[in-house]
Amino acid sequence: MTSATDTPKKSGGFSDIRKMFGGGQSTLRQFGILGSLLVIILIFQIWTGGLTLSPTNLINVVNQYSYILILAIGMVMVIIMGHIDLSVGSVAAFSGIVVAKAMADWNLPWPFAIVLGLVVGALIGAWQGWWVAYVGVPAFIVTLAGMLIFRGANQVVGQSTTVPVPSEFGVIGAGYLPELPIALPFNVLTMLLGLIGVAWIIWNEFRLRGQQKRTGSDMAPVWVSILKVVLLSAVILWAAWLFATGRPGTSFPVSGIILVVLVIVYSFVTNKTVFGRHIYAVGGNRLAASLSGVKDRRVDFFVMMNMSVLASLAGMIFVARSTASGPQDGNGWELDAIAAVFIGGAAVSGGIGTVIGSIIGGLVMAFLNNGLQLIGTGADLVSIIKGLVLLLAVGIDVLSKRSGGASIFGIWSRRRQARLETAVPETPAVEPTAGTNETSIPADNRQP
Amino acid sequence: MKRIALAATAVAAAAALTLAGCSSSERGGSGDSTDAAGFAADSSIGIALPDKTSENWVLAGDLFTDGLEEAGFKADVQYAPASNTVAEQQNQISSMVTNGAKVIVIGAKDGKQLGTQLQQAADAGVKIIAYDRLIENTENVDYYVAFDNFKVGQLQGEALLAGLEERSGHGAPWNVELFSGSPDDANSAVFFNGAMDVLQPKIDDGTLVVASGQTEIAQTATQGWEAENAQSRMDSILTSTYGSQEIDGVLSPNDTLARAIITSVQQAGKDMSKVTVTGQDSEAESVKSIMEGIQYSTINKDTTLLVEQTIKMIQDLQKGEEPEVNDTEQYDNGVKVVPAYLLAPVIVTKENAAEAYANVPSLLEIVESY
């Protein structure tokens, strides 16, 4: 906390840069995670001799982890509510096999199959949401049951076999932005997407400054705004360039576009809409929220339902990418999604967490996994490293929250201080002021 | 503290940007990967194996690492983890392609779910060899190396006939019962059809009598390859059919089921030294049983030979030559017939055990202790 109180004095200097992302405690934490992500990418970029940020690998990472990141979007909302959803992997597998079977056995056209999958997800979500919200069974139990039920249901429908899907369906999991018939050495649509992103950043900054001026609130200096816009635009354009110059036939993946759209929509929903703010309100203090008129059960219901719909979508993307739905699909996905959310700064107690943070948390895991695989680390070690990173990320978070700054020395000295403080009152405790058992027993024990 | 974090992030971002500038565009450079020319002798070779569920995969991985390094290649051997196995194997294969592997050998966790990754590999000019398990529903699998499973079935059938002659103490006709593997495993039918290729003529001419009358593959199936299913089926057959007559032999597709069948026969009070039971896989328990004169035979599929053959194919590809195959008809993966090199399995009985396990120290030790 000390440095936070220092800040106003130093205005006008380098510390203004913190205003780049709006300042505040939670954005700063996300900033730290973003920093770790960049460091991880940097380390592996050097270690793999430039493979990590090669177009092919970036496209791979998006394709490989988009479904986990989509799960993380739903999961962060569940976790903000103070719940957990263990069933996402099984729900994804069940929707996947239903969709695959529908296309194989009934010749259902693939766009309808996607709709069918989403409906299945919504029904499962309504079922689980009902148990959580209106019956009052803890989400942990409801979704643990769901995990078993829908894994079994997957195997009943698919008879424990792998069911192939038609190749057109593959577009949502392994498709790319198409090439326009323009003879340029890059994918035009991908670059266009990048330019739209840049335009949005500039417009957003203008709007923000305008708003701040009108309300007369604390404004960042102009140079910080310009630096922010230039930096973000550079990152976006350069990323777009990498995606646009991959192997011919590949560009920004369709699953990535789905992900980006969902991130924008859900960030908006959680930050700007009444429903979104209710999620934080209920997650932060359920009683206070319901006393102020928030229908907390309805929020529970829709958050759980939403999670299953997103799980179905993730399952279908995976099936599309795998060209088939198998009995093993979705095994362990819930854990990857939950890990992403917590690395992304959500609190176990609920009330805290953001969609963007969870995406960055998921990307930390994704680049870590990808980098370790590129340098040929065995699956056993990868698992250990991922586990340690999760523990470390949440550990630092917990420590910094408890002591207002994660300085090891600070923690140590505070601990020492605490020990001294507890040691001192022990002697007066022997004094006859207290006749209760609690104090007299330790006093007797000390006698022999 | 916070200022340090901010500064570090800014530095990292800047560094990442600069470094990324080094990675060049991948467009326009295509068309240089002509497959006929072969590739550099020290190229990276990817080996993607499923999770370490059986000793066999661990052994194969070690043999590949040593064998490929010896041949001058860079070996990139990866096992899929126990959780999210299929997806992680897909990722590993993609990473191998990114890493510039020239050949990727795949022991698939699920042979039907690798289409996208193999397309990626094919686009990058990588050759794919399916190892032990066929990869289905994709045109991008170049070769298949495995033991000949039809031959396994034939050898089991022959072993059953030889065992009946040797053990039953009487001439034909002999009473036998048939078992097959799990219906969801494509190999089950291959084993069974191989065995019936030998046994059906003998059933037709009356040399063999299937007293229970159960000769269809659906009737003989063992769901999930589970021992208890085989044991309960054998129990019921013994009760219903063998109250007054003797059973002389049982066709069992593998060792686990063979031991379950043997337990059932022993519990019914029959003398196992007169009954012939076949097997497969050379499991240590069954090798002991064979040396004690209980189970009659098993099959040895020598992993060493399979790995050697695969490395030989990789070396041919490196030189730009067409690798040798010996089957271009049997293995239709749904999109194309995959050219295969099939190795001959070896039947193992008490007589040839020492010779058959010369390459497998752990089993040789068991054999020599008798």
Automatic annotation (TrEMBL), chain A:
Record keywords: Ubl conjugation included?
A: no
Q: Does the keyword tRNA processing apply?
A: no
MF (Gene Ontology): transmembrane transporter activity
Segments for region (Disordered): 423-448
Question: What membrane topology term does the record carry?
Answer: Multi-pass membrane protein
- Report the locations given in the UniProt record: Cell membrane
Task: Please note every region of biased composition (Polar residues).
Answer: 434-448
Q: What is its main location?
A: membrane
Write out the transmembrane intervals. 28-47, 67-94, 106-125, 131-150, 182-203, 223-244, 251-269, 301-320, 341-368, 374-399
Gene Ontology terms: cellular component: plasma membrane
Q: Name one Pfam family in it.
A: BPD_transp_2
Which key words tag this protein in UniProt?
Cell inner membrane, Cell membrane, Membrane, Sugar transport, Transmembrane, Transmembrane helix, Transport
Q: What is the role of this chain?
A: Part of the binding-protein-dependent transport system for D-xylose. Probably responsible for the translocation of the substrate across the membrane.
Its name, as the record gives it, is Xylose transport system permease protein XylH
Q: Which organism is it from?
A: Agromyces seonyuensis
UniProtKB/TrEMBL annotation, chain B:
Q: Which residues are the signal sequence here? A: 1-20
Keyword Signal recorded: yes
- Show the GO cellular component annotation of the record: outer membrane-bounded periplasmic space
Task: State the UniProt keywords alphabetically.
Answer: Signal
Location (main, coarse): other
Task: Give the UniProt subcellular location, in the record's own words.
Answer: Cell envelope
Pfam families per record:
Peripla_BP_4 (PF13407)
Q: Which residues form the Periplasmic binding protein domain?
A: 45-322
Name of the featured protein: Substrate-binding domain-containing protein
| Native source species | Agromyces seonyuensis
